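Protocol step 4 of 5: obtain the predicted structure for the target chain.
Materials: sequence only (see below). No template structures provided, no constraints applied. The aim of this step is simply to have a reference model before the mutagenesis design in step 5. Sequence pasted as it appears in the construct record:
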Amino acid sequence: MCSSSIPRARQGTRLRRAVEQLGMGDACVLYTTKAVGDATAYVRAWCAQHPGEAVRFIACGGDGTINEVFNGAVGQENVSVSCYPAAAATTS
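Step 4 output (structure tokens):
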């Protein structure tokens, strides 16, 4: 889950590289938020479509993106959240 406030080319390159280094390319979906509230809605929708399935959401962005992902995960079963700090202030 990536914040749309980070330039997409830079964000996508770094994240894809990290996923490849971990050998997790087939097990990961990179999703870029489109607006405020999108991350929360995406997490809730994913959990509703995959009830009981274990999943980890990795929030890539600043405190707003991380907050939204956590809010979407609250109350969900088998969900964990991690963060990869990538806000504009940390990537320049």
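Step 4 remarks: Helices lie at 8-22, 38-49, 63-73, 88-91. The first strand starts at residue 55 and ends at 61.
Proceed to step 5.
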